[in-house]
Design goal:
It is a single chain. By secondary structure, the chain is of the alpha/beta class. It has a single domain, classed as TIM Barrel, CATH 3.20.20.140. It contains nine helices and eight strands. It has helices at about 25-30, 60-70, 90-95, 100-120, 140-160, 175-180, 210-220, 245-255, 255-270, and strands at about 10-15, 35-40, 80-85, 125-130, 160-165, 190-195, 200-205, 225. An eight-stranded parallel β-sheet has the order 1-2-3-4-5-6-7-8. Strand 4 (about 125-130), helix 5 and strand 5 (about 160-165) form a beta-alpha-beta unit. Helix 3 (about 90-95) packs across helix 4 and helix 4 (about 100-120) runs parallel beside helix 5 (about 140-160). The chain is globular. It starts with 8 loop residues before the first strand and ends in a 9-residue tail after the last helix.
Length: about 280
């Protein structure tokens, strides 16, 4: 197979070396031409953390940092950890731990405070936050927005991007405005699992052909991802680790080389301040 003449970044995936494919998935990604990864921490409950004490979430971040370090050793480029609180945590804190929405919000903001420490001292590259993509009460919705706004304040404080899990939408300008009000540039807000069109934040586009082609033709900044969840109990739930390199190859065949450079060199530099070309060995 002809080598890809570009960095290839999967902007959002999870790895579980204990229960999933772990480094085997990294090797597969690299073998197909992948070079860089943003490894997002697993939802805390998947790693056995079921607590209302933010300090107990450090183990989730430590695990993610270790996984990224192991992945870096196997990549032509490198991997970076993205750490924070999955927005679905709010429902677990309320339903399983008996928290009020305000108590759950406070816990999750505390988790983000610790995550920001990891970014501040260089152990992680960015934060993850968001709000539920499923129906919740007004009180839970408001509390979730409070968590997300806190993430934006922290992102501004430590100068990092914030990856978001949110409902499906082509217009999240309100969220981008909330970030800007707190000192975080809207382009440093990244909508994970985005379609090919998005107003407001930077889209991290799920790498099916239609969405990627729409993003490529838009001329706007975008990233590419699989949201690989590395869960043997949910095979095929999302895209596999080969997908982004395969889509980059397909984009090149369609004549979208400028869009490839935009997604894998220009936008990562703009959003994260990273150089995917100089970090290639």
């Amino acid at each position: 197979m002809e080598e890809l003449a570009t960095p290839v970044l999967d902007n959002h995936l999870h790895l579980d070396p204990e229960k999933g494919r772990g480094m085997e998935a990294v090797d597969e990604f690299a073998r197909l031409g992948g070079t860089h990864l943003m490894i997002v921490n697993q939802p805390s409950w998947k790693l056995g953390v079921d607590s209302t004490d933010p300090e107990d979430f450090r183990s989730v971040f430590e695990t993610t940092v270790e996984i990224a370090a192991d992945a870096t050793e196997r990549l032509p480029g490198r991997a970076w950890p993205i750490v924070g609180a999955h927005p679905g945590l709010i429902s677990r804190l309320i339903e399983d731990r008996g928290c009020s929405p305000a108590e759950a919000r406070d816990c999750m903001q505390g988790v983000l405070d610790i995550a920001a420490d990891y970014v501040g001292d260089g152990r992680a590259l960015g934060l993850k936050s968001g709000r539920p993509h499923y129906e919740v009460s007004d009180a839970v919705w408001d509390a979730s927005n409070g968590v997300m706004k806190h993430a934006f304040s922290l992102g501004a404080e430590v100068d990092c991007a914030v990856q978001l899990h949110t409902e499906a939408s082509e217009d999240l300008t309100e969220i981008a405005d909330w970030a800007e009000e707190r000192g975080l540039a809207p382009h440093k807000v990244v909508k994970h699992y985005a379609g090919g069109r998005l107003a407001g934040p930077t889209p991290s586009v799920m790498s099916n052909k239609d969405w990627i082609e729409t993003a490529a033709e838009s001329g706007d900044s975008f990233l590419m991802e699989t949201d690989f969840i590395d869960d043997p109990d949910r095979p095929g739930a999302v895209l596999g680790p080969k997908t982004v390199p395969r889509r980059v190859r397909w984009l090149s065949e369609q004549g979208y080389d400028e869009a490839i450079h935009r997604a894998h060199v220009e936008t990562p530099e703009r959003v994260y301040g990273i150089d995917t070309e100089s970090t290639l060995s």
